[in-house]
Write a structure and sequence with these properties.
single chain, about 425 residues, alpha/beta, Ubiquitin-like (UB roll), Helix Hairpins, four-stranded mixed β-sheet, globular
Length: about 425
């Protein structure tokens, strides 16, 4: 069993706050930005707790969780202010992989079987803080996928039959226990925190944790005459080529250990952590070798610009160009959606998109329905040209609806991937 390291993010009314007891705002911090920081420092997931007092505040927090899910790749375990089945559904639909129920509240205990039957018990955790809450959770074990334990003393000596996540000041000691499947560290990481390095040390001690484990070691690569390995660096989402650099053994091993792209500077004759001076770090998502193992392809999350000139990519100077269709079929949906969102933020006179936004949701829904009907009619025509036209119209109006309701293509593709 791979043991997880979770970092807590506390929110109230959609804003980041201090912690379990102190709900003071964190100035200059937003939940999505904090989530990205946790992603980059080597966490395995986010524990997101909503302390909102009102339904309106809870809705703001749901939107914040959606934005967290969009901007990082870690799973979110969410909870707080759950009063009914609908609250669990909203958290799952916002992007939470699991939802925890507060077993200090009787109504949350009573919800357990209902939400487990609806969504699957593997998505439901019981959050316990006292002995009687732990007993209640164990009594409902058949409807739970795990237990989130806030007090270390409640951790069972032996495995209780349910995975246990524990909040702990000393993660290393607790991860050695068979009954613990994950730990929640006490607070947010600072900018220099690197849990990936810590997890490499824990793995050496026999703790099964998630680390980068390369299938090839340095000796397996074919280096150039200077003993270096060329690295082509690519954005992991849109696949844009960002830069080319070189690694020596130390740079390769440092990259694997820290999760931050590290190179060897041929001009300075020294190790070079990309972004250490500029803040434009590159966080590793994937490393691949070419067929001859003499070049490495790195897919990364790029902070800011990859190029020292301030350009996103180092490849910005056109040397020659033949006229060709630059349309990327994989990016068309995103590009059109970006234009629609821009129209919403910056209205343009005479824009049909702005006309729809001005008329409101009922008009948008009417157009979606009309275009869906047009597809049915066109599908009866043996010539597919009309069908292509009507499907395009339908998709455009669906994207206007998505922008109106705050749904992105990332939300849609992630939901399709889950299915």
């Amino acid at each position: 069993m791979i043991k997880e390291l979770l970092i807590p993010i506390f929110i109230k009314d959609g804003e980041a706050v201090e912690g379990w007891q102190d709900h003071s705002p964190l100035p200059g911090e937003d939940p999505a930005g904090l989530a990205q920081r946790c992603d980059h420092c080597g966490a395995d997931g986010i524990l997101c707790v909503d302390f909102s007092d009102t339904e309106a505040g809870h809705e703001k927090s749901i939107r914040a969780i959606k934005e967290m899910s969009r901007r990082m790749d870690l799973p979110i375990y969410g909870g707080g202010r759950i009063r009914r089945m609908e609250d669990v559904k909203k958290l799952l639909y916002a992007g939470c992989r699991k939802v925890f129920l507060n077993y200090g509240r009787e109504d949350n205990c009573e919800l357990t079987q209902e939400v487990a039957d609806r969504f699957g018990k593997e998505k439901i955790l019981a959050c316990v803080n006292r002995e009687e809450e732990m007993r209640e959770a164990l009594a409902r074990e058949e409807h739970l996928g795990g237990i989130l334990i806030l007090q270390e003393r409640l951790v069972p000596k032996q495995s209780a039959g349910l995975p246990c996540y524990v909040t702990a000041e000393d993660p290393e000691r607790l991860l050695l226990r068979d009954s613990v499947c994950g730990v929640v560290v006490p607070g947010l990481p600072d900018s220099n925190e690197n849990y990936l390095e810590k997890k490499h040390l824990w793995k050496e001690q026999g703790i099964s944790v998630n680390t980068f484990e390369p299938s090839l070691c340095w000796e397996d690569f074919q280096k150039n005459e200077a003993g270096l390995l060329p690295v082509v660096v690519q954005d992991y989402k849109n696949l844009e080529v960002l830069m080319v650099a070189y690694m020596n053994r130390e740079a390769f091993e440092t990259t694997v250990r820290t999760g931050r792209m590290t190179y060897y500077s041929r001009s300075r004759q020294e190790l070079w952590v990309k972004g250490l001076t500029s803040g434009h770090f590159q966080y590793v998502k994937e490393l691949s070798a070419d067929c001859d193992r003499d070049t490495l392809l790195a897919k990364v999350f790029q902070v800011g610009a990859a190029c020292h000139t301030g350009n996103r990519s180092c490849f910005f100077e056109t040397v020659l160009q033949k006229e060709y269709d630059k349309t990327n079929p994989l990016k068309v949906f995103e590009d059109v959606f970006d234009v629609i969102q821009d129209r919403k933020l910056h209205p343009k006179e005479g824009s049909y998109t702005n006309y729809l936004f001005d008329k409101g949701i009922d008009k948008i829904l009417k157009k979606v329905g009309e275009e869906a009907a047009e597809i049915l009619i066109a599908a009866k025509n043996p010539d597919p040209e009309e069908l292509k036209y009507e499907i395009s119209d339908f998709l455009y109006h669906v994207m206007v609806l998505m922008a109106e309701k705050g749904v992105s293509w990332k939300d849609i593709t992630e939901e399709l991937a889950r299915r």
